[in-house]
Amino acid sequence: MTNIRPSTSEPGAASPPTIELRGLPGALAQMPVEREAWAQWRDRVLVWRAGLLLDAEEHPDQRPAVLQLAAGDPLVFLCLFGCVLEPRDRMDIRGHVVPRGWLPAVPFPFQARLIRWFERLLAVLPGSPEAALGRGDGIVEKARGMAFSWTFAAYLAYKWLFDDNFLAGVMSYKEELVERRHSTDTIFFKIEANLGIDPRVPAFRELRVGAQPMPVPIRPPEWLIPTGFDPAIHNTQLLLTHPTKMNVIQGYTTTSRSGTGARLSVLFIDEAAKFANMREVWESASAVTDHRIAGSSADIKFGTGFRDLARWAEEACAKGTAGPSFLRLRPDEHPERDTRWREEILARHSGDEAARLAFAREYELDYAAGHGALIYPQAQEIEPVPLSFDPALHYLDVALDPGIREQTAFHLVRYDPGSGRYGVLASYTNSAQPAEFYATLFLATPLTQRYRYGPEEERIMSWFERYGALIRFWVGDPAGHQRSGAGISFYDAIRRAVAELSDGQRHIAFAAAGSRDFRLFAPRHEALRWLLQRCDFNDTPDVVATLRAIRDYRYKAMPEQESMSAAVAPLRTWGHDRVTALEYYAVHRKLAGDALHLPPRIAPRRVTMSGKPRPVTSVTRHHQGVVTLW
């Protein structure tokens, strides 16, 4: 049984003095946790590594025994074959400078803890009590520089070599961080280095071991690579296949539908806090694997999905309720991060407020550091509820924030005149699409020869197919009226596309607050605060994401020397497009709502120069059931 500190499911548990490694000889089989003892143990492991691999080079008949030893424990595999690229000069525990370059990846105690945690997660089987609680999934909340990606890359290399029928997926917030030719910062680069298939890794390097320098093997030997392996065949873009086993490591792109295809033994999600749609990615992957493992340092700039998952997992493990397993890796667990390191890193982050906040976020796991006060604190108290739409009881509106150069977001909002309450029924976001694409959604008329439509598009089109002709107001950001170089605005382009696609049977025109006051942040914030007091949110994933965006919408952090006026500017974090759409809708409803429900009045009559009567334009005009304003 592995002797290792338990995860946060047992708060306050103390670290054991050693971690057991299966198969290592004598005292090497016990990894000390205390930093000085670990440093001495590491030196002994390096001497053992160098001797064992040198003997195996000179005596090929010993290689099967070495491979069998490595196959018995991923930590032993790291001790024998692990390597890591450190592009910075570092100082070791004893105060010696280690020049930058490739190093043997003898595991730190926190890495051993992480790998044993991986093993426990993958050992959770369907039908077990742990599976009933969801503990086969896991969330790793880590400080910056805790080698999460290098560690899981080495673990995947181990499983690819020695396991059977192992199909793993890897994902990051950008595809180029999964694999990119010649890059040293991708997951596949780290996997390939630990398999010995990257010839750029040096075979040996002279390093100080104890008091004396000695040559230490770095690149895993050629006889570790499976027989028959051909890089041109078995190591292609985003795909690493074993030549004789059904073992595959697959890289995935980063969309909410990522990982929804082939079945997987495990899916690793790196830099999970930088996914704008992390909750959607997490939920999508549940259908294809029993083991989802997401890791990241603290960040909410791109969304709160990872933070919310981490808090759920932490609470579930603490209370014994359903939820993923949870592991936190703090910087003080790293043997090389002592008082000297902390003084140096604090000195580097002491130049200004932004630097100090970055330290708090990246090393102290303070998600809110670097972000100002919440703009809509009342949204924290709003809980989503089931909502429906009844044309006999409710009005239906559309609120849109056009993404001229970035994300476009829109919502379907109902209004109940009986109760005076609003309700966000559905939300949708997309980017890099022309106005015509959104016109096809509004008409529920897909142009499959021009655009791609997935489940999200089908979902939102089903609303417009049933109720599109009943839309009362189409409300948007005034920016949508700005004309492009071609002399046409986003809203004009939608209007023309709708007319063309419907053969002139449907007309859409967007209302926008023309007053300059509402181009400022403060009046819009005040309007949405007013709306939130009388608004409900549907308990569907798309609308819950909108509510999360409102909850997390913040002012920019304001250094002490800046004026208070700087506090009104919001931080452009994930979901700001969702929030902006509702802000302009709130302005529209707060200021124009009452006037638009007045009984129709008789328009005054004027005459033209020729004497013919001419009616004055009223507040509203109707286009086949579609009402536009201004």
What is the gist of this entry?
The protein has 630 residues and is α/β, with parallel strands linked by helices. Helix 6 crosses helix 7 (187-195) and helix 13 packs across helix 15.
Distance between the termini: 73 Å
Q: Give the tally of β-strands.
A: 27
- Overall residue-averaged pLDDT value: 85
Q: What does the largest sheet look like?
A: 8 strands, mixed
Shape: elongated
The assigned structural class equals alpha/beta
Radius of gyration: 30 Å
Order of strands, main sheet, comes to 11-12-13-8-14-15-7-16
Helix content: 25-40%
* Quaternary organisation: single chain
Low-confidence stretches: 1-15, 559-567, 594-630
Q: What is the number of helices? A: 18
Share of residues in strands: 15-25%
